[in-house]
Every structure is written in structure tokens, then in C-alpha cells.
Design a protein that fits this description.
The structure holds two protein chains of two kinds. Chain A is about 45% helix and about 5% strand. Chain A is built from three helices and one strand, in the order βααα. The longest helix of chain A has 9 residues. Helix content of chain B is about 35%, strand content about 15%. Chain B has nine helices and seven strands. In chain B, β4, α6 and β5 form a beta-alpha-beta unit. Chain B is globular and about 45 Å long. The chains are: A mainly alpha, B alpha/beta. The interface between A and B is large, with 35 and 61 residues.
Amino acid sequence: MKRFLFGSDFNVLTPLQEIKDIEKFSLTKEELRTLQQNCAPWACS
Amino acid sequence: MRLPRSTFLKIVALWFLLPTLSILEAPTLIAKQGQFSNQSVWRADHHMHLASPHLCGLVGECLPSNDPPAVFATDAIRALDQGRVSKGVILSCAYLYGLPSLHLKPSELALMTRRENEFTAAQVALYPQRLVGFLSVDPLAESAIDEIRHWRGSHELVGLKLHFTASAVNIRSARERGQVAKVIAAAAQEGLPIMIHVGGGKFGAAEAELFIQNVLPSAGSSWVQIAHAGVAYLSKTATTSLCCAHSPTTSPKTTPLQRACCSISLTCLLRTERRRKLPLSCNRCGELE
């Protein structure tokens, strides 16, 4: 999961809509937390 | 941003849904615009777009709540707050000026590309704590490399977005692969991370392999993010080739793909992997630190 970055393609979808879609995939809590925390160096450093 | 028309009805529906979502969200969950929120759950949305009124006038697919229709930084911040997301990566839509259907002359394409990138940079600058931007170009345009170099040292535009489908890149053409590789190399030379929406015409496993073997190495040590996990307009076979076909034992860790990461936009890859019971991770993509 550390290889994946969250992206909504706003304004095609909003981040909230994309998050709700992701929640349908039955990720484990750990997988979801990893995805929530993943941040590319250009965004978070 | 996806290509216009094919998703037009869906976008129209979203235009009507968005105000409803705003009402449903509890005000306490919404961060003060322009500032970080202690209650944010998601660290960043790595795939967002703004669009100037001029671009919207040509290709549509913009927010009608703005008059004239456009997508501004304030709209992105509002959406981030609704989703409790701290930061957003704004990808310039300048590449849309390269749509073949617009029939722009090279000089017009260069000028409009510059203006859209300037629009994106100016909008990002309004929220420096929340937003960072990527410039974009049509990689087949004569002006592409000059445009990348123009933004050297920018604090707002710190990466490059390419959209092969919008730019009608024919990956089976050796000449076009070479052109795209030069553009990617120029971005890498500037130290820019590169986000690529692969596709364009027929794009299956063979085309994905051409991309991997002939284009991607030009990124050198720069990060490469594959938009939509390579799925948006591709066959499942191509996606598998692009992200998951090679194990570390057959792909040395020093290859550019080991430093690539996949955008989970639309989460199609996860869906595909779950159905096929493939490993959840992409062996050819590098892990974030």
C-alpha cells in the first residue's frame, strides 16, 4: 500500500466522493490508514 | 481532468450533487480554509485540477457555480475541507490545449499553455500551505521543453503532468516515443517529479511495455506517478503489465520503475486486483519513504 497515492481527479469527483468509493473496497484498517498517511515528497516535505 | 463529452452527463450530475454534499457535512469537520486542520484524516489528494475561464470556454467540464464557469483554488480548498484532506496537488490542465479537436497553431498552443500554467501557479500561490502545483504541456508540441524550462525554480509548480490521451500520443510510433522521452528527460533534468496519464488510442500490454522500456527510463531518478494507476482508459492487461507484471527478482531495484508510484485515483487497480486476487502491491513501483 505504500506505493499508492490518494487522488480524486477533482473536479471530476470531489475528494469526499473518492473517499467514499475507496471505503467500498473493504480495505483493512491498516491498509486504509496507510493510504490516508501516504504523501508524496512534493506534497508533504 | 478526463476528456470532455464522454463524461459530460456524469459531470452535470455532480454539479447538482455538490451543493447537497456541502449541506450534509458537519461544519465542525470543515477546516478553516487556507489552513491545516488538526482533524484532517487524509494527508494529501495527489490528483486535482483547476481550470481557467478561458480553458473552460473551450473544453467545458468546469464548475457552473463560477461565472464564467471555471475551477478556482477556492473550489479545491472547499473540496479538500469537505473530505478532511490536508493538502492538494493541483495539476495544470494546460495540456488540454493540445487536444487535436482544437486545431491550434503551434504559436497559439504555446501561448495558451503558458497562460494556463500561469493561471494554475497564481491560484496555487493563494494557498501556499495547502496547495502545490504541477505544470503541464503537450509533449508533442514544439514548445514543450521551453515551457518546462520556463518554470525552473518555481515554488508553485514543482512537477510536470502529461496526459497521453489528450495529447494523442501514439506510443507505437518510435518518433513520438522519442519526443515524449525528450520531454520527460527535460523535466528530470529540472528535478521535477512527473505524473503521467498513459493511454492514447489502442493501449494494451504491448504498448505498456513500449512505454516501460523506451519512455520511462528517460525519467532517470525522478519520481514518476502513474495517474489512475494506469487504468482509466486502459485494458486490465495493460495495467497489469504497467504496474504488476514484473517481480523484483526480474526488475533490478535501480530501474526508474522502482521509483515510480501509482496514483490510486478512481481506485480501479485495487478493484481489479481484488477481483483477480493479484498481489495488492505493484512490484515495479517504488515504495514511499
